[in-house]
Design a protein that fits this description.
Layout lengths: L1 H29 L9 E8 L10 E6 L4 E5 L5 E7 L2 E8 L6 E8 L4 E3 L2 E2 L7 E4 L18 E4 L10 H12 L9 E4 L13 E6 L15 E6 L7 E10 L18 E12 L4 E13 L1 E9 L5 E9 L2 E15 L2 E17 L11 E19 L2 E18 L5 E4 L3 E4 L6 E18 L2 E18 L6 E4 L2 H12 L4 H6 L6 E7 L2 E20 L2 E12 L7 E12 L7 E11 L4 H9 L5 E7 L10 H5 L4 E8 L7 E14 L2 E20 L26 E23 L3 E14 L19 E2 L6 E10 L4 E10 L3 E2 L18 E2 L9 E4 L2 E4 L14 E2 L3 E23 L32 E15 L39 E9 L1
Parallel strand pairs: 1-7, 1-8, 6-9, 11-13, 23-27, 34-37
Antiparallel strand pairs: 1-4, 2-3, 2-5, 5-6, 10-12, 12-13, 14-15, 14-49, 15-16, 16-19, 17-18, 19-20, 20-21, 21-22, 22-25, 23-24, 25-26, 26-29, 27-28, 28-33, 29-30, 30-31, 31-32, 32-35, 33-34, 35-36, 36-37, 37-38, 38-39, 38-40, 40-41, 41-47, 42-46, 43-45, 44-45, 47-48, 48-49
C-alpha cells in the first residue's frame, strides 16, 4: 500500500506539474507585451498614524513642468491619479486635522502603475523627503531610525505563505531580541493573538521607536503586524499551494529507512470591497492540510534486552483553519470604527513523538481560538487624535494522550510508556481595553494612554497522575530488566547499585482556576529642539496582581542627532536608555493553584523499591521515603526588569545605500526561576541516603517549589545592517553579535544548587553568538520576480549534564565537575569539551551551564514567481496575494532595520499587472541546497548518544517534519 500511495502521489504531482506548465505557457503567449502602455498612474490609500483610512483627503501630483493632477480619497481612503506622463512628480496630501504631507521627485516610469500609500502625521511640520528612484535614506525621528522598518506590498512575497514557516521567518527577520523572551508580536496593536493569514496582512513593522514609553519591552525584536482594510472597488483572489515528498528531500537520519509519503496542501483566498458609501470590508481565509512525519532516532532495548538503534518516522497529520473578516465604518468625517474577527483552529494527531520520545508518547491536540478586536479612531481637533481599542480573545485547547500507562524515562536514551503530561481541557478568556491620545504642541509630539487586561483561565488536567519512573542511564535500565527477568527482587537489584533513581506521581483535583489582572499608564513626548535634534522622554507605570510590588515605574529617554545641516543630514547619532519590566505569566499562576498541596499534591520517591508496580497515593503518603511536593508563588515575588542602553550611528552611504551600527547593553535584575526553598541545608544532605538532610521548613513540608525573582542576566549586542535599493535590485541584511550570561534558564528552570544561584551563572540558553541575514528581490526580464533569502546562525548552546540529584531537591539537573589529578580514573570522562568528574560530591564546583555549542545552521531560500495579466485595463495594479494590491512605498521607514527586514519600498514590477485579472505562478524552496542543519546534541554524559544530534534543527533552517529541503508550488488568481 505504501508503494501504491507513493506511485499515486507521484502521478498526481506529475499531472499537476504538467497542468501548471501548460497554463504558464498559454498565459505567457496570451499576455500583451509590457511597456505598450506609455502613460502611468499613482494610486494608493491615505492612512492616519493608527493605520485607519482617511476619507476626503486631497492628493495632488505635480510634474516638473507644473502640470497638476488632483484626486480625493473616497470613504475607504483610496485615491487614483491616472494617465500621468513619465517623469518626476511631487505628491502632496492634505486632510483636516493632519499635517501636510509632501514627497518630491517621485519617479514614474512609462506604463508604471505606482502604488503609493500615504501615512499622515497628527500633526507635524510639513515633511519633505527628497527621493530619486526610491532611494533609501536616514532621517532624524524616533520612529525613523535605521532599525525601524516596514515591509508591505510585493515585498511581502519574499516571505513564506505557510503560516508556521511565515511565523518562524518573521521571528528570524526580527533578529535576536533583548532578554530571554524572544520576539514580541503585536497584531493591530495587541499581543496574544494568532498570526492572521498572510493575505490579510497589510504591513509588517519592526523596531518602531525602541525606547518609547508606549511599549512594555524594548523595541529591538518587536514586530507589529497591521491587517488590511477594505477597498473602494471589489477585489479578491484565491490560491492553492502545496508540496510533496516527491519534491522534498528526506531527513539524513532516514537514509537507511523507508519514509512514508507525505504532502501539504494550503488553499485560501481574500475578498474586499465597499459596503455602501461609508463602510468597507475585507475577508480572508486559509485552510492547510499537512500529512507529515515526526522522526524518532535513539537507542532502546530489543526483545533480548540488548541496546539497539531505533529509527522510525511516525505520521503527524495536522489541519489548520484560519478565517479573518474585517469591517471599517465611517461614523462621521472625523470618526472611524473598525472591527476584526479571527478564528484560528488547529487539529493535530501524534504530537509528542520525536527524537528520543517513542511512539507511545503520542497525543492528539486540538485548539480553537476566537479573537474580536474593535477600535474607534476620532480626530478631536486639528491637533488631537484619540483611539480606543478593545480585544476579546478566547482559547479552548484540549489534549488527549493515546497511552496513559506509567511513564518510563531513561535519561539520555528514550521516554516510553504513557504521556506524563496527561489530558488537558483548557479554557481561557482575555479582555483588554486600550486608549491612546496624540497631541501636537508646536515642536512637541505628545502621546499618553494606558491599558487594562483581565485574563481568566480554567484548566482541567491529570498531568502525571499515571506516575513516572526515571532511570539514570540505559545501562541501569538494561541491568534492572535483566535482573527482573532472572527473578531478582528489587531489594537485590538495588543492592547491586541499579534500579530506577526516582519515581514521581501526582494526585488530587484536576481542576484549577486563576484570574490575572495587569495594566499600565504611560506618557511620551518627542521634542524637536532643532531641525536636526530630537529629544524623547517618557514614563510608564505598570502593575500586576500576581506579584508583591504593584507599582513598577519605567522611565525612558532617547536622543536623535543629525550630524549636518537640516536637509543635508547624512549621518544620524542615536542613543537611548530605559527600564523595561517583564510580567509573571498565568502559566505559572495556574501551576501554583493546582499543585498547592490541597488541590493536588505530588510525591517524589528516590530509589523506589516497588518498580514496576504503582502504589496507591495513600500508601506513598505514609512512607518516610516519599517527599510531598507543592508549588507556590513566593510572597516577595517582584516583577523582573532590565536596564537597557543603546547607541547607534547611521550613515547615508550613497543615494541608494544606507548602513548603521548599533550597540545594545542590557542588565537584567530579578529574573524569574523556580527554586526548592525547603531543600536540605548545605552540608546536611548525602546523595547516597535520600532521607538525609535538614530542611528549613521541616521534613513534613517536603519539596516547596517556589517561583522567585532572584536571577540576573547580562547581555551585549552589536548589530550592523545595510540596505541597497536600485531600479531592479533591492538587497538588505544584518549581522548581529550576541553575548549573554545568566544564572537562570527561565521561570520554570531550577538551579542545580538551591543555595548558590551564582553556581549556575554562565552562557544563557539564548546566547546565539552570531546571526546573519541577507535577502532582497530581483526584477528579472519577462516579468519574473526572484526573492532570495539567506539566513545563518552559530550553534545553540547546551549543557553537559548528569541528570542526577546532588542536593536533595527532587530535580535531576546536576552537572559534572571538572576532573582533577585526584579524581579517581573510574570517575573521569574525557569529551571534546573537557575531562569531567562524573561522580562529583555536593561540595564540588560544578561546571557552568551551556558550556557546549551545537552545530551552526545556514539556509538559502528562493522564491520565483511570474504574474500574467489578462482582460481589460483595471484601476489598480494587483497580482500575487502577498503583494496585497501592488507596489507600495513606505520610504518614511527608510532603510533596512537592524533586525533584517527591508523597508516597504516599491517591489519589482513583474509582480503586478494593470489588467483586470491576474494569475500568478510561483515556486518556493526552503533550504534549497539541502544542507543538513542538525539539532542540539544530546548533553547527558550518561547517554550512549552523548554529543550526537538526533534530528534536524527545524524551520526556518529546514523544511517541516523530516524534510531537510522543502519545495512548494503555488497558483493564485486575483481580480
Amino acid at each position: 500500500m505504501m508503494g501504491a500511495d507513493r506511485k499515486t502521489g507521484g502521478r498526481f504531482v506529475q499531472d499537476v506539474g504538467r497542468t501548471i506548465l501548460f497554463v504558464a505557457m498559454a498565459l505567457w503567449l496570451l499576455t500583451p507585451a509590457q511597456g505598450q502602455q506609455k502613460l502611468g498612474s499613482i494610486q494608493g490609500e491615505v492612512l492616519d498614524p493608527s493605520g485607519a483610512v482617511v476619507p476626503n483627503a486631497t492628493v495632488t501630483a505635480t510634474s516638473t513642468s507644473g502640470t497638476a493632477h488632483t484626486a480625493k480619497t473616497n470613504a475607504r481612503g483610496s485615491y487614483l491619479l491616472p494617465r500621468l506622463a513619465p517623469g518626476q512628480y511631487t505628491v502632496v496630501a492634505e486632510a483636516p486635522g493632519f499635517a501636510v504631507f509632501s514627497k518630491a521627485n517621485l519617479q514614474i516610469r512609462p506604463g508604471q502603475n505606482f502604488a503609493f500609500d500615504i501615512n499622515l502625521a497628527v500633526p507635524a511640520a510639513q515633511t519633505e523627503v527628497e527621493v530619486q528612484a526610491q532611494p533609501v535614506e536616514v532621517a532624524v525621528s524616533p520612529s525613523e531610525n535605521a532599525s525601524s522598518v516596514a515591509i508591505s506590498g510585493s515585498a511581502l512575497n519574499s516571505l513564506a505563505d505557510d503560516p508556521d514557516s511565515l511565523l518562524t521567518q518573521i521571528q528570524e527577520l526580527a533578529g535576536p531580541s533583548v532578554g530571554p523572551n524572544g520576539a514580541e508580536i503585536y497584531i493591530d496593536g495587541f499581543t496574544g493573538g494568532d498570526l492572521p493569514p498572510k493575505s490579510a496582512i497589510r504591513e509588517i513593522r519592526v523596531n518602531q521607536d525602541p525606547f518609547s514609553a508606549s511599549y512594555d519591552r524594548l523595541g529591538y525584536g518587536r514586530v507589529e503586524i497591521l491587517t488590511k482594510p477594505g477597498s473602494d472597488t471589489l477585489h479578491g483572489s484565491g490560491f492553492v499551494m502545496g508540496n510533496s515528498s516527491e519534491f522534498n528531500s528526506n531527513s539524513p537520519f532516514l537514509e537507511d529507512s523507508a519514509e512514508p509519503p507525505y504532502h501539504t496542501v494550503l488553499y485560501g483566498g481574500r475578498l474586499g470591497g465597499p459596503l455602501g458609501h461609508k463602510a468597507s470590508f475585507f475577508f480572508s481565509m486559509e485552510r492547510r492540510n499537512i500529512n507529515r512525519d515526526n522522526l524518532v532516532n535513539t537507542e532502546t532495548l530489543d526483545s533480548n534486552l540488548q541496546p539497539v538503534s531505533f529509527v522510525t518516522a511516525v505520521a503527524n497529520p495536522r489541519v489548520l483553519t484560519s478565517v479573518s473578516p474585517r469591517v471599517d465604518y465611517q461614523l462621521t468625517p472625523n470618526n472611524t470604527v473598525t472591527a476584526r474577527y479571527h478564528y484560528f483552529g488547529v487539529d493535530e494527531t501524534n504530537d509528542g513523538v520525536g527524537a528520543q520520545d517513542l511512539p507511545s508518547q503520542a497525543y492528539d491536540f486540538d485548539r480553537q481560538h476566537h479573537l474580536l478586536q474593535v477600535s474607534d479612531t476620532q480626530i478631536l481637533s486639528p491637533r488631537a487624535l484619540n483611539q480606543t481599542r478593545f480585544q476579546f480573545l478566547h482559547f479552548h485547547n484540549t489534549r488527549d494522550p493515546q497511552d496513559f500507562s506509567p511513564t518510563l524515562q531513561v535519561s539520555g536514551a528514550f521516554t516510553d510508556g504513557g504521556y506524563s503530561d496527561g489530558s488537558l481541557d483548557r479554557s481561557e478568556s482575555h479582555y483588554e481595553l486600550q486608549n491612546v491620545t496624540t497631541l501636537n504642541l508646536n515642536r512637541h509630539y505628545f502621546r499618553f494612554g494606558g491599558f487594562i487586561r483581565d485574563i481568566r483561565r480554567r484548566e482541567s488536567t491529570n498531568a502525571n497522575f499515571n506516575g513516572t519512573f526515571v532511570f539514570n542511564s540505559l545501562t541501569d535500565y538494561q541491568a534492572t530488566e535483566q535482573d527482573l527477568s532472572q527473578g531478582w527482587t528489587m531489594a537485590q537489584i538495588q543492592a547491586a547499585g541499579v534500579g530506577p533513581s526516582q519515581f514521581n506521581i501526582t494526585g488530587g483535583n484536576p481542576v484549577a482556576e486563576v484570574n490575572r489582572l495587569d495594566g499600565a499608564v504611560w506618557v511620551q513626548d518627542d521634542w524637536k529642539a532643532r531641525p536636526n535634534l530630537t529629544f524623547s522622554y517618557g514614563l510608564r507605570l505598570e502593575s500586576e496582581n500576581a506579584v508583591s510590588d504593584h507599582a513598577d515605574w519605567a522611565p525612558r529617554l532617547g536622543l536623535a542627532w543629525g550630524l549636518g545641516h537640516a536637509q543635508q543630514v547624512k549621518t544620524v547619532l542615536r542613543a537611548g536608555f530605559g527600564v523595561f519590566y517583564d510580567r509573571f505569566d498565568d502559566d505559572e499562576m495556574i501551576q501554583a493553584a493546582r499543585l498547592n498541596g490541597i488541590n493536588q499534591v505530588s510525591y517524589v520517591v528516590a530509589n523506589p523499591s516497588f518498580y514496576p508496580d504503582i502504589p496507591q497515593l495513600d500508601t506513598l503518603a505514609a512512607q518516610s521515603t516519599s517527599v510531598p511536593t507543592v508549588y507556590r508563588i513566593a510572597s516577595n515575588l517582584k516583577s523582573p526588569y532590565a536596564l537597557e542602553s543603546a547607541v547607534s550611528i547611521e550613515r547615508q552611504l550613497t543615494r541608494d545605500a544606507t548602513a548603521s551600527v548599533t550597540y545594545v547593553n542590557s542588565r537584567g535584575e530579578r529574573s524569574l526561576l523556580t527554586n526548592n526553598i525547603n531543600a536540605p541545608l548545605p552540608g546536611t544532605y548525602d546523595p547516597s541516603d535520600p532521607t538525609s538532610g535538614t530542611r528549613p521548613l521541616g521534613d513534613a513540608a517536603g519539596n516547596v517549589y517556589a517561583y522567585v525573582s532572584q536571577g540576573i542576566f547580562r547581555q551585549n549586542q552589536i548589530i550592523a545592517n545595510f540596505h541597497v535599493r536600485r531600479k531592479r535590485v533591492s538587497l538588505f541584511g544584518y549581522y548581529a553579535y550576541n553575548d549573554v550570561h545568566s544564572d537562570t534558564a527561565g521561570v520554570d528552570s531550577f538551579p542545580a544548587n538551591p543555595w548558590n544561584l551564582l553556581a549556575d551563572y554562565g552562557r544563557a540558553e539564548f546566547d546565539i553568538q552570531h546571526r546573519a541575514f541577507v535577502g532582497g528581490n530581483l526584477d528579472m526580464p519577462f516579468g519574473i520576480e526572484v526573492y532570495p533569502m539567506v539566513m545563518a546562525r552559530s550553534g545553540l548552546p547546551y549543557s553537559v549534564t548528569l541528570d542526577e540529584d546532588l542536593f536533595g531537591t527532587g530535580i535531576l539537573n546536576s552537572r559534572p565537575a571538572y576532573a582533577t589529578a585526584s579524581t579517581p580514573a573510574s570517575d573521569v570522562r574525557v569529551t571534546p569539551y573537557g575531562a569531567f568528574n562524573i561522580n562529583p560530591s555536593p561540595t564540588a564546583t560544578l561546571i557552568p551551564p551551556n558550556t557546549a555549542t551545537g552545530p551552526s545552521a545556514v539556509t538559502f531560500n528562493l522564491r520565483v514567481s511570474r504574474t500574467f495579466g489578462f482582460g481589460a485595463i483595471g484601476k489598480r495594479s494587483h497580482g500575487d496575494d502577498g503583494g496585497g494590491g501592488g507596489d507600495h512605498d513606505h520610504n518614511r521607514h527608510g532603510g533596512l532595520g537592524g533586525r533584517g527586514l527591508a523597508s516597504g519600498g516599491s517591489g519589482p514590477s513583474g509582480g503586478s499587472t494593470e489588467r483586470r485579472y491576474a494569475v500568478t505562478l510561483s515556486v518556493e524552496a526552503q533550504n534549497l541546497f539541502n544542507r543538513a542543519n542538525l539539532g542540539v546534541p544530546v548533553g547527558n554524559l550518561n547517554s550512549p548518544l552523548f554529543g550526537q544530534s538526533l534530528d534536524l534543527t527545524g524551520p526556518p533552517y529546514s523544511g517541516q517534519g523530516d524534510a531537510s529541503r522543502r519545495i512548494d508550488m503555488r497558483l493564485s488568481f486575483s481580480f
